[in-house]
Specification:
By secondary structure, the chain is mainly beta. Helix content is 8%, strand content 48%. It contains 3 helices and 18 strands. It has a 6-stranded antiparallel β-sheet with strand order 1-4-5-12-7-10, with no helix packed on it. The protein is globular and about 70 Å long.
Length: 295
């Protein structure tokens, strides 16, 4: 149905209800940050090997690569430059992807271009069994092209979480110093690649923060030497599990305290504390922590 306003055509309630039921409103894309809008860890990564870069996107190589955030008409995309190693992949793990999509037809789509022509591999993998149920090669050129792969996700009767891995791989074939660019990655139910779903940036950020977030904390006041000060810091978005929290950097001025630390974490909050090294007023400390609950 064409449900645009100001149309003279009329529809029955049954026709409208059926159309609404069959349409996807807001969450057809099972990829989080497929538009590369969210980069909480930074947007330039040099000489890296195995780590997260853009939120939810993992760089994997036994050599080194560079990753940079670029823009095309105001919209972000990712660039991955191969530098060394026998393999280079960019992948995302989809929580309960096999459980939720098992037995269904899905379509994986994305745009790619490169600084030179080469063949890139697209894979869909059951992470728990390490078996690829879709493995296709695609000829990438120096012009943007949309690539589509349609397949059926294997069924599962497992009650445990079955993670789906989506991999853009074999970058090493591109050649040293060359770059692959990727944008608008989508995994959706059905046999047709529909237009990329651009969710609001605040919503996309909250989806990312289930797996990773930065925590900034600041304390200011009167302190007594050797006393411990701090408080609980809520995450806002509940994380997937109780995260691993690592000190990243100082936050603001530091006066009269040692380096802050985390003494307790749950999926909803953490407790930041520091020990005073001097007594007096106008004492302060602050820190930025990285909290990770990635798959």
């Amino acid at each position: 149905l064409d449900l645009k306003a100001n149309q003279s055509t009329t529809y029955t309630k049954t026709e409208v209800d059926t159309e609404i039921t069959n349409r996807s409103f807001g969450f057809k894309n099972h990829i989080i940050n497929g538009g590369f809008d969210v980069w909480q860890r930074g947007d330039i990564f040099s000489n890296i090997s195995i780590q997260y870069t853009a939120d939810r996107w993992y760089n994997q190589t036994n050599g080194t690569s560079d990753i940079v955030k670029y823009f095309d008409n105001g919209k972000p995309f990712i660039g991955v430059t191969y530098k060394s190693g026998s393999y280079l992949n960019l992948y995302q793990l989809i929580e309960r992807g096999i459980n939720n999509l098992g037995g269904k037809t899905v379509t994986f789509s994305l745009y790619m271009r490169a600084t030179v022509d080469f063949n890139c591999t697209l894979r869909l993998i059951n992470r728990e069994t390490s078996s690829a149920f879709s493995n296709t090669s695609h000829a990438v050129t120096t012009e943007w092209q949309r690539f589509n792969v349609t397949t059926v996700v294997p069924s599962t009767t497992s009650t445990s979480d079955q993670t789906l891995e989506l991999t853009i791989g074999e970058f090493q074939q591109i050649g040293v110093g060359q770059t692959l660019f990727v944008k608008e990655v989508q995994l959706e139910e059905g046999s047709v690649a529909t237009p990329f779903e651009q969710r609001p940036i605040g919503l996309e950020l909250s989806l990312c923060q289930r797996y990773f977030r930065q925590v900034a904390y600041k304390w200011f006041g009167t302190a007594e030497n050797l006393y411990i000060y701090g408080s609980s810091v809520p995450f806002g978005v509940e994380m997937r599990v109780s995260p691993t929290v690592v000190y990243s950097s100082a936050y603001g001025d530091q006066n009269g305290f040692n380096t802050p630390s985390i003494i307790l974490t749950t999926s909803k909050s953490c407790v930041v504390v520091a020990t005073a090294t001097a007594s007096g007023s106008n004492k302060q400390f602050g820190a930025i922590f990285n909290a990770s609950a990635e798959l």
